[in-house]
Amino acid sequence: MQFTPWKCPECGEPAEGTVETVPGLALLVFDDTGQAEYEGNTKIHWNGQKTCRDESGNVILECPDGHQWSALHPCNSNIVGSSNTGVYRSATQAQIRGECHSDDRVYTAEFNAVPWFEEATDRDILKLAREGWGDGWAADEVAIFMADLVPDVQKIFDYLKHYNQARKERIGLTCAVNEGDALTWLQAHRPQLHAAITAAAED
After folding, report:
1. For 181-190, how does the pLDDT look when each residue is reduced to its tens digit (9 = 90+)?
2. Where do the structural domains in the chain lie, given as residue ranges?
3. Apex CA 58: angle with CA 102 and CA 13, to 5°?
4. Percent helix, strand and coil across the chain, each to the nearest 5
5. How buried is residue 49: exposed, middle or buried, by Cβ count under 10 Å (0-12/13-18/19+)?
6. Overall pTM surpassing 0.85 (yes/no)
């Protein structure tokens, strides 16, 4: 993966990593009257780890000296926006909003699905359209493809792997793309396929 810039603007050192937030539970102890004190330990919920981003959706990097800066990343090179609000501004004016989440919704991710559409065959896109643009096998293929480009999508697959290894009851993920965005993109880039899909929807 590539970050721009990948070196600290202040000291010139390469980034040591991305800044993350991890939720925790500060443990309490109670006496017989209900008075509480902190026990002194914190239980860390690693499954809730999230990458910190600025207001434009760029990741925050940190160097070994503790300097932090914003950097462009493949997951937001085509989309500029806040993953927390779901508001996007496309730097290339081409976007197909997509979203996927683990079945228990511990992890969610939003992405621009244009790279998948650019690589997909007409048959692949037709399958996705017939599924209602999500929540099916074709949409799972979109998530698998996007995992190589968007770290937040990859985190969902990593979470599912660990979850299902530790439990008998298995869970999966749900992925979907915005139908309106998809049809707009198809009309501009694959008009014949767009016509076939819209005609089938009218039957």
Report:
1. 999 999 999 9
2. 21-48, 93-202
3. 115
4. 35, 30, 35
5. middle
6. no
